[in-house]
Design a protein that fits this description.
about 260 residues; 2 domains; five-stranded antiparallel beta sheet; three-stranded antiparallel beta sheet
Length: about 260
């Protein structure tokens, strides 16, 4: 009975849906996290009577056919790259992007990763790094005898070095954009990698046309809406339950057909 396999595909689809929702909820407080959703597609159909076929020698055409579907499959799990809520941290090395763009991070293997997580630190050499100690590109080093570190909206990093009477420019943070940012590959640690689907990064300074600006002493929270996630969870649970009832009904029908009276 095809209903068993069709309902089973529905249960597996909703199980994956629940897993995505649970990951979204788990990362509600993850800096720069971008939530995922599940997109589904119907499977192939079996034609018992193909629509548009001739029904007589006089050329009559069948207006509607008879088709039986095969169930559902997961087509994609895209990330929603909308802006997350900004929260104040009062930490001078915390930076948030308001608008488009990703920070560039140099990984230990030499590859460049991209992130919306601006919770930066200074290492032993005064270099601006991520929480894992990976360098933010382009590298910016803050002298040990400097005070009053500032990062303006255009990403320019300044500090007063020694007994200087005016701030010294130490560098400028740059942002990268992608034609298809949902095509980036997530690798954990709040990082993404370029892929053939995302396209090549387009690097520019914050505030340039099409690029966001930076906010010092701020961090971008995950773009997860708890109310909508709980609502989606309930809907997924009910869909899973209905598919399980179809399996139970199909099993009872099969049992009735094979049980001798």
């Amino acid at each position: 009975m095809k209903a068993l396999h069709i309902a089973a595909s529905g249960m597996m689809a909703q199980e994956l849906n629940v897993e995505l929702i649970s990951n979204n909820i788990a990362n509600m407080r993850t800096t720069g996290f971008k939530r995922q959703r599940a997109d589904f597609q119907d499977l192939l159909y079996q034609d018992l009577r193909r629509v548009g076929t001739s029904t007589s020698e006089s050329g009559n055409i069948l207006p509607t056919g008879v088709q039986i579907g095969s169930g559902v499959r997961t087509a994609a799990t895209p990330r929603i790259m909308s802006q997350g809520t900004l929260s104040s941290t009062e930490k001078e090395t915390d930076v948030a992007v308001r608008g488009e763009g990703f920070f560039r991070v140099l990984m230990p293997d030499g590859r460049t990763a991209y992130s919306r997580d601006g919770s930066f630190e200074l290492d032993a050499k005064g270099t601006l790094v991520t929480a894992d100690g990976w360098t933010v590109e382009p590298a910016i080093t803050v002298p040990s005898n400097s005070t009053g570190l500032t990062i303006n909206a255009q990403g320019v990093v300044q500090a007063t070095v020694g007994n200087a009477s005016s701030p010294t420019t130490l560098g400028q943070i740059q942002l990268a954009r992608f034609i298809n940012k949902s095509g980036l590959e997530p690798i954990g640690n709040n990082l993404f990698l370029e892929t053939a689907s995302s396209g090549a990064p387009q690097v520019a300074s914050p505030g340039d046309e099409g690029y966001g600006t930076l906010l010092q002493n701020q961090l971008e929270q995950g773009n997860v809406n708890s109310v909508s996630e709980i609502s989606d969870l309930i809907a997924a649970q009910r869909a899973y339950e209905m598919n399980s009832r179809v399996i139970r009904a199909a099993d009872e029908m099969m049992s009735a057909s094979v049980t001798p009276k």
